[in-house]
């Protein structure tokens, strides 16, 4: 999330994707109205400890969004999940995976952290 990467508290609308990311109340402030947004900003100004804790939590969560972390998750999905499933399906159908997939896997394995 951009706020985590920027090192600032996140004040977000009630969107499903953000809700799925939430692990604690320090992840972000969810607001539906301008008044709620203003209240969140005032609370952060009035409670420096809350501001600092929210920023610290966000910086920790930002590690999950690093290029290496995202690459690792996509590689796992593709090569540990989808490719084996495709191979199994191909075997059931009597087919073989193309060389293109094998080359792509080899290239991405060199990138894996």
Task: Characterise the protein shown here.
The protein is mainly alpha-helical and 113 residues long. The protein folds into two domains: 64 residues, no CATH class; 45 residues. It has six helices and two strands; from the N terminus they run H-E-H-E-H-H-H-H. A two-stranded parallel sheet has the order 1-2. Helix 3 crosses helix 4 and helix 5 runs antiparallel to helix 6.
Quick structural summary:
The chain has 113 residues and is mainly alpha-helical.
Sequence of strands across the biggest β-sheet: 1-2
Low-confidence runs of at least 5 consecutive residues: none
Structural class: mainly alpha
Question: What is the number of E strands?
Answer: 2
Radius of gyration: 21 Å
Write down the overall mean pLDDT.
88
Number of domains: 2
Q: What order do the SSEs take from the amino end to the carboxyl end, as H and E?
A: HEHEHHHH
Largest sheet: 2 strands, parallel
The helical percent reads 55-70%
Shape: elongated
The number of helical runs is 6
Share of β-strand residues:
under 5%
Distance between the termini: 21 Å
How are the elements arranged and paired?
Layout: H1 2-6, E1 11-12, H2 16-21, E2 29-30, H3 34-46, H4 48-62, H5 67-93, H6 99-111
Parallel strand pairs: 1-2
Helix pairs in contact: 3-4, 5-6
Keywords, please?
113 residues; elongated; mainly alpha; 2 domains; 6 helices
């Amino acid at each position: 999330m951009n706020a985590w990467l920027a090192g600032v508290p996140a004040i977000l609308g009630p969107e499903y994707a953000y809700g799925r990311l939430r692990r604690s109340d320090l992840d972000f402030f969810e607001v539906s109205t301008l008044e709620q947004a203003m209240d969140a900003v005032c609370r952060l100004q009035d409670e420096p400890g809350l501001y600092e804790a929210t920023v610290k939590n966000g910086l920790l969560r930002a590690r999950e969004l690093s290029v290496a972390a995202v690459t690792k998750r996509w590689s796992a999905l593709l090569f540990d999940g989808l490719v084996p499933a495709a191979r199994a399906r191909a075997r059931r159908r009597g087919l073989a995976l193309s060389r293109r997939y094998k080359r792509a896997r080899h290239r991405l394995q060199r990138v894996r952290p």
